[in-house]
Amino acid sequence: MAIIKYIIADDHKIFRQGLRYALADDHRLKLVGEAENGLMLLDIVEKQKPDVVLLDIKMPEMDGIEATKKLHLSYPGIKILMLTSFDDEHFILHLLELGANGYLLKNSEPDEIKKAIHAVYENDYYFNHLVSNTMLKTLTRKNADLKFKNAINLNDRETEVLKLICQELTTVEIGAKIFLSPRTIEGIRTSLIEKIGVRNTAGLVVYALKNGIIT
């Protein structure tokens, strides 16, 4: 199985050290760098080309929000997993809109962090109860501030693939289920992202929730 290269970006050395030890027993995960701010992170990313970045929000010189913007613009293939102490729904929704693939709190169990890293690498997103509950609570408000388009006409095949994406199936699994090649599924996924106007698969899931395609 593929090795997942990851970077930890957090300004607290003791947290980085603890997280490094907590993830060390997963032999599919390979730490390729640590950064204490966003500027350092971008420099390491350029050299190491990681698969996943574990990113805090509050950091000196360049915070996690600005780093997310720059990572998504320059390295759209890198998965961004927010790992922070901020549980405010504003941060959760804003980071997802900017292109983050998942959002965890720092008090998460090591097993959940490992699960999330694998999920964003394989499925492009990881939504736990914190994220799901925040989205559902926000979407029920009249003044919901998510900025996704509403009236978009999806054909039956696009809707079918979108529903399967929301079930956390991989491209290969979706293709096997509806008898299409992985390349065709990836093409439909890319078309959905462009058609709906979101940044990644996480945005597709938010759109599906908002528009009643899934519950």
Could you characterize the architecture of this molecule?
With 215 residues, the protein is α/β, with parallel strands linked by helices. The protein folds into two domains: 4-138, 3-Layer(aba) Sandwich (Rossmann fold); 149-197, Arc Repressor Mutant, subunit A, CATH 1.10.10. The protein is 52% helix and 13% strand. It is built from ten helices and five strands; from the N terminus they run βαβαβαβαβαααααα. The protein has a five-stranded parallel β-sheet, sandwiched between helices. β4 (79-84), α4 (89-98) and β5 (102-105) form a beta-alpha-beta unit. α2 (38-48) runs parallel beside α3, α8 (171-178) packs across α9 and α9 (182-196) crosses α10 (201-210). The longest helix has 15 residues, at 182-196. It starts with a strand and ends in a 5-residue tail after the last helix. Residues 142-147 have low confidence and may be disordered.
Strand content: 5-15%
- Lateral arrangement of strands in the main beta sheet: 2-1-3-4-5
CATH superfamily of the largest domain: Response regulator
Number of domains: 2
**How confident overall, as mean pLDDT?**
90
| Approximate shape | globular
